[in-house]
Amino acid sequence: MPTSVTLLAMQNADGSETLGVKLHDDVVLDVRKASHLLGIAAPTTLEDLLKEGNARDLNKLVAAAKTNPKAKAAMVEESSITFGRLFANPGKIVCIGLNYRAHAAEANEKLPWVPILFNKYNNALAPHNCTIKLPPKEVSYKFDYETELLIVIGKTARNVSEADALNYVAGYCTSQDFSARDLQLETPSVQWMVGKTLDSFGPIGPYFVSADVVGDPNNLTIETHVNGEKRQSSNTSFMIFNPQKLIAYISKMWTLEPGDIIWSGTPEGVILGYPKDKQVWLKAGDEIVSSIEKLGSLKFKLA
Q1: Mean pLDDT, consecutive 10-residue segments, the chain of 303 residues?
Q2: Are 7 and 22 in contact (CB under 8 A)?
Q3: What domains are defined for the chain?
Q4: Distance between alpha carbon 208 and the CA centroid of its chain, in Å?
Q5: Which of 53, 70, 151, 288 minimizes the number of CB atoms within 10 Å of its CB?
Q6: Which among 86, 104, 88 is positioned nearest to 96, based on CA atoms?
């Protein structure tokens, strides 16, 4: 699995989305270009890196690029990058509902005694700095934010113990479980998946940070700002089921594989939790920033 790295996805002029390695400050190594310049094969997407398990080749390329003058042409300023999707085709997207006590309380729901699982589809995946095009009002209009810690699986996991679970984690990302509350909760029957997986309703980024760099995932500050106003402010320590419990539980239901991703739930402060007379749903023109300690700030707009 990758170690000691912060990775991002770059959208290229040819429409492809390839891997970048954040070296320092504003400097990013364009992996595809560096591989071509130095003649060193390396995975060019995060999903390839995880599914093939060839972090060694990436490390070899990065080490060579730091010392070989030929690689200078593959060094780009992060501020000049158009971000791509870190994940485009994961095998499984698992989402967790009501995983913070205060969020369950604000939603007037009982605390779950096992993790509540649902899913998104690949069409929901979107990059940092994206624009989510909202559907017509007759389809949905009650849009809400949910900043969440994304858990990225790096090794095949089946029936793992809580004590061993974090050894199967490749890294973490900041993510947004963008939600259409009317579709989720006001259709003839509750349909969490329908309200969660419209096009681009799952932005992730800006970075994938390897697990060893993050350290303990159970003590990270998590926040959301809407148009500059703080709406959510909590800590992953307040999860009902921490990442270890989630991985142990899910891996008893089915096999988790490298590249699978888990949205781990959102804390309190969502619009759904406001008194009904104070619920002002998100709209075109709003700007949302989701931030998690050590993982960076995911930004996107609505249109």
Answers
A1: 97 96 95 98 97 95 97 97 97 97 92 95 98 96 98 98 98 97 82 89 98 98 98 98 98 98 98 95 98 98 98
A2: yes
A3: 6-80 (no CATH), 93-302 (3.90.850.10)
A4: 8
A5: 70
A6: 104
